[in-house]
What does this fold into?
Amino acid sequence: MPTKPFRRRKYDNLSQFRAELAYLLRNRKNLRHALKGETISGAFRQRLMLVVTSVNRCRYCAAYHSQVSLVAGLTHPEIAELLEGTIEDCPSEEIPALLYARQWAENNSYPDKEAYDELAGIYGVEKAELIELALKTIRVGNLSGNTFDYLLCRLSRGLWGCPELRQKSA
It folds into this structure.
């Protein structure tokens, strides 16, 4: 067993995962709309994904969305900054949503009501709902990847799935 705790966010139980997956399935029509890029551009969506991933620290999502972000037009330095939690160099019209995404992720998908109201006031209710749906999508990916790593880490007694533990002990 690793001597240090697994520090990335993960699902604590199967019912959490099932509830979030069921939400996405219930909203799959809106999810398809959000992923088409008509209301939220591909680059904006990837910035949202990278901000949430920077909080949840899923290595699989970081790698995947870094590649997708390049295709969407982001640069390597911008991707690195987003994964480090820096958003100051992003387009100014996206900053409120990126700040919201960070707070949303830091609060385990339960932001302050005032924060959501501000988001809806800036972008409109429809776009705010699509932003939330994109955030929920990446959360499922992040926590699924981290839960997989947690199980690997536990089953292998720290040999696999928890590189942060090996790096700190080296």
User: Anything to note?
Assistant: The domain at 14-159 is CATH 1.20.1290.10 (AhpD-like). Residues 125-155 form the longest helix (31 residues). The CA atoms of residues 71 and 97 lie 21 Å apart.
